[in-house]
C-alpha cells in the first residue's frame, strides 16, 4: 500500500499550486500528485485571456471591494460573499507571487504588469501573458514541482475515493499503461480534478474534462452544489467549438450579426461586447434563433479594425486558431463564432479553507477540494472571465497552506487494502468480460447530444423533464457496454468506459438540479420562469447521488459583504 501525508488528485493550476505551497510550508511532508494525464496536459494550460487582480497598474481607482462587487453582481448574487472577499483581497499578492516565480506576464512600457478589460469587470484589472496565460502559469508551477521533487503519478486514473465513517482515507488508483492497481492511504486528500465540459457535445474543454472527481465525490455520498449553472462561453469557433478568448473582445473586437449590426447594443448597451458571459451567450443565441445570424448558425467576431500589429502582439493564439482550423486570417476576415460549453460554476461544496462539506454543512474529515471541481462559491450563477485562473491560484495556495497545517497532528488512517484492491479488480474484470452490445463511442455521443438538446442555454420544464428521462434510459444502457480490447496494457477503452460513467452521473445531477430550480439566474435561463426569484431561490442547490435517483436539498448563500456595503451588495436587479 502506498502511504503519503497528502494526496492531491489533479495536476492543473489548483493542484500544482497546492503542491508547491505544501512544499514551501513544510518540505518534510510526503506529497503525491496523482493525475490521469501529465500535469502539463491539464486543461489549465489552455486558459487564454488572463487572471484578474486589482493591482492598479492601469487603473489607479481600482480596489478589491470593486472587484468583489463586480464578481457578486456577475454571479447574479448567488456567490458566497465571504469567499469572494478572500478571492479579491488576496488577488494582488498572488499575482506578485507568480511574477516572482518567473511567470512571464505581458508588460506596460514602464515594465509593470499589463492589465486589459474583461467582461463584467468595471476596471482594467486582467493581467495576461498575451493570450496564453494558463500556459505561462502552469508551466512555471510544474517546473516548481520538479524543483521540490514532488512525486508525480501521471497516467494514473482514480477508481475510488475511500470514505469510511465520515473520513476520507485514501484512493484506489489504476495505472493506465500497465493495468496495475494500487491502494493509497493519506492523512488528507485534495481533489483538484477540473470540470466536466465533455458532458456536452460541443465544448472548449479538452477530452480529459469528464468530471471524474465530481463523480467520485457523489458516489461517496458527498453532495454536488449548484450544478445547474453551466457556463457557455460566447465565442466558440464555429463549427469546431474551440475557444476564442474573451481577450479578443477585451482588445476591442466587435460581435456582428448577419445584417452587419453590432447587436450587443440591444442587450447590454453600457458594456457592449464586454457584458458578462451569460448575457453575451444568450444574446448570440437569440440573434441566431430570431434569424439574424449568419447562415442561421453563427455570428461574426470581427478583429479587422484592430490591425495586424495589435492582433499579432495581443491575441496571436486566436489568430493561429482561426487559421489552423478554418483557414481564416482574422487580419482580413471576420471569424464565425457561437456559444460553446466552457466552465462549471458548480462542484464539490467547500469552506473558504477548501475543506469539503457534506450534509448540514458538516466538514468531511480529511477531504479538501479546490479549483473548478470545487464550489467555494466565488462564481455563483455566472463566472466573470479571468476569475477562474484567480480562483485556482488563490484557493490552490490556500488549500496547500491549510493541508500543511492540517496533517501535522493526524495519523495515517486504517485502510483494508485487500478489500479495496479486490473490489477494483472485479470492476475492471467485469468491464473487460461483459458480453454487451453497446459501443462506448455511440453511447457517449447519444448522451452528449441529450444534454446539449435538453439542458443548454435556454431551458424549460418539458425539455428538462424529457432530458432527465432520456439520461436515465442511457444510464441503463451503460450496463450493456462492450469493450473490444480485452487486455490490461494501455487499454484506453477501460478509461473511456470509466469516463463515460463519470459523464452520466454528473450529467444526471446537472439536469435534475436545473429541473428543480424554477427561476432564471445567471447561466440558468428558464423560458417558463424568466425572472430571478430571490424569495425562493437565493440559495445553493445541493444534489445527492442515491440509488433512487438525485435528491435535492438547499443551503443559504453567505451575504456577509452586504453588512459592510449594503448599497452595493444587497441583491438587486442585474443590469449592464
Automatic annotation (TrEMBL):
GO terms for cellular component: plasma membrane. Residues 5-389 form the FAD-dependent oxidoreductase 2 FAD-binding domain. Its cofactor is FAD. Residues 444-576 form the Fumarate reductase/succinate dehydrogenase flavoprotein-like C-terminal domain. Pathway: Carbohydrate metabolism; tricarboxylic acid cycle; fumarate from succinate (bacterial route): step 1/1. One of its GO terms (biological process) is electron transport chain. Keywords: Electron transport, FAD, Flavoprotein, Membrane, Oxidoreductase, Transport. Its main location: membrane. It is a peripheral membrane protein. PANTHER family: SUCCINATE DEHYDROGENASE 2 FLAVOPROTEIN SUBUNIT, SUCCINATE DEHYDROGENASE [UBIQUINONE] FLAVOPROTEIN SUBUNIT, MITOCHONDRIAL. This is Succinate dehydrogenase flavoprotein subunit. It comes from Gloeobacter kilaueensis (strain ATCC BAA-2537 / CCAP 1431/1 / ULC 316 / JS1).
